[in-house]
Amino acid sequence: MKPFLSAAPVTTPSPGMANERDATSTLGGILICGGQSRRMGRDKALLQVDGQSMIRRAAQLLGETCSELQLACGPEPRYSELGLPLVLDAQADGGPLAGICAGLKALQTSHGMVLACDMPRMQAVIVRRLFEAAEAEQLDVCYLATERGVEPLCAIYSQRCLPAIERALSLGVRKVTAFVQVEGLGTHLRVGQIALEQHASDFTPVCNVNTPEDLARVQGQNGGPQ
Q1: CA distances from 154 to 30, 66, 88, 96, 203 (A)
Q2: Terminal-residue alpha carbon distance, the chain
């Protein structure tokens, strides 16, 4: 059983914005793996689920669904052993928003699929549906939404987001979703979402692994529905 995904309304862009968009959309991957893992007590990206580290699982998923991949590993190089391109945060304290900024700058594609490395049950079908929704509705941002709210680290971002993200970071903004509120830049972006509706199973592809308890729960899911 696959998770049920449904489209959600989008914001209305300013006049003429839709006509300025590229005719061809392409998707690259941005793997967010620059966190400190404080609640886990050790580097959670290297922890294994089903015999494979979470960072390798996420990289494999993005490699299957995206034409290129960038590892947003924080302000210092990490995980070079994976043999994948690394991008560094320009701001040491910029958090995931700085990683998204660095990743978009490095990508040659029109859009970036941002995924946190601590979602080991994420599914390729969700990545594809997010991109399909972004293309169909000409969205600059397309979040996956659950009953907990939107997931900014499981979302599509277009290159048009870059000016607003850079401006937000320069203003000290660190909340990932707040860049769309930057006057004159973010407020002109089209933002939407697709909804993930849970079934009776406890399985969830967007379960973040932040603590040892989270890890134990995910390891007990046996891969979830197919």
Answers
A1: 10, 14, 20, 12, 17
A2: 5
**What mean pLDDT is reported for the chain?**
83
For residues 124 and 61, the answer to whether their CB atoms sit within 8 Å is yes
CB 214 within 8 A of CB 120: no
Instruction: Give a yes or no: residue 15 inside a domain.
Output: no
Written as six digits, the tokens of 144 are 């996956």
Q: Can you give the pLDDT at residue 206?
A: 63
Residue pair 141/104 in contact (Cβ under 8 Å)? The answer is: no
Beta carbons of 176 and 161 less than 8 angstroms apart: no
Partners of 133 in the β-ladder: none
* CA trace torsion 59, 61, 67, 72 (10° rounding): -30
DSSP state letter for 11: P
Q: Are 192 and 11 in contact (CB under 8 A)?
A: yes
pLDDT of res. 137: 95
- Region of 41 (left: φ > 0; alpha: ψ -120 to 50; beta: rest) is left
- CATH number, residue 162: 3.90.550.10
Range of the domain at 126: 4-10+26-219
pLDDT in tens, 92-149: 899 999 999 999 999 999 999 999 999 888 899 999 999 999 999 999 999 999 888 8
Q: What is the CA radius of gyration of the chain?
A: 17
Q: Which helix (H) or strand (E) holds 19?
A: none
Give a yes or no: residue 106 inside a domain: yes
The low-confidence residues of the chain, meaning pLDDT below 50, are: 1-23, 199-203, 224-226
Asked whether residue 154 is domain-assigned, the answer is: yes
